[in-house]
Each structure stands twice: as C-alpha cells, then as structure tokens.
Amino acid sequence: MLQRLSENLSHYLVKQNAATEEKREIIQYGLQSLISTGLAVVLILVIALLLGQFWESVVFLVGFVFLRRYTGGYHAGTYFRCFATTILAYLLNIGLIRLMDEARVLPVLIVILAISIVPIFLFSPHVNPRHPMTEREIRLFGRISRLGTLAVAAVALATALLGSGHFALFICMSLFTASVTLVVGMLHDRRKERT
Fold first, then answer.
1. pTM (2 decimals)?
2. Host domain of residue 190
3. Which of 58, 81, 106, 169 has its CA 20 to 30 A from that of 175?
4. How many domains does the chain have?
C-alpha cells in the first residue's frame, strides 16, 4: 500500500511537471520514507494523547529524531518493520519512564545519560551500507551528533534541576534511544558482514 501510494504520487508529480522522470525513483523513495515516518509520528502522538503524555512525547520525538538523523544506526529492512520498531521503542520508553521513581530522578538521569553518551562519542555516525556518506559528511555528522548529544544531555539535566523530572526523563530517553539504535545498527551490520 505504501509503495503504491508513493508510486502514484511520484507519477502524479512527473505528470504535473513538478519533477522529472529521471528523479521519479528518488522522489518515490523519499515519499515512502516521509509517509512511513509521518504515520509513526501521528500514531505516537495519538498514543501520547490517550496516555496523557502529549507534550512529553513531543519532547521525546524532537530529541530522538534530531539525534537519530546524525548518529545513524539501525535501519529496518522494510517500512513496516521500521514503523513497528519505532512504535515499540516508544512504548518501551513510556513503560520504562513509568517504572522510574521520580523522587530519585537525578541519579537515574545521570546514569542513563552516561550510558547513552559513550557510544555516540565513540561510534557516531554509524554509516549504513544502504546509505553511504562521504568522508566530509561523516566528519560533519560526527560533530553535530556529539554537540547535539551534549545539548540534549544539558537540557535534560537542567530540566531535572528546575524540578521537572518527568520531562527530563523523556528528554533523557530520547538520547538513550538514539544511542541504542546506533549500537544495534552497528551490531546488526557486523553480523551481516560475517554471513
């Protein structure tokens, strides 16, 4: 369904002279990615509304999407797997946050931030074989991911210190999730190289 929708939209854009036939395949891929990501974000926000965690989830998504763009990491084999993995990761984060004792948020936050920062500083960006990058892009993405990580960590700590531990956990978990996808992507690609 997603492929057919993006195919039809790309054909329509070519027909309307908004794109050339040579670029139609690239546009189709971009549309598939955009629609899949958009559906995941909409579903996450609907779940967030139902759980009474809308603004916290917006904060989580902003942090995660920004960091994920520059850290790289695991790429699911299909759009459905990507969609399902994203929703599952979000739900796991909600579950973990609900289990955390907000009275002890600062020590928990510091531990999670430390665990999250190390892989990003050591391995970011992870270049997926299906999405090659130039050396210049690798250096640039590495710098942005490290600076972004420090910024997200600082905002999480400041938010906790200002008394909003709940929001701080959502910010922190966006960094943690980006870090986990980075490590999982590296392990996945290494396993594939061995086979």
1. 0.85
2. 53-194
3. 81
4. 2
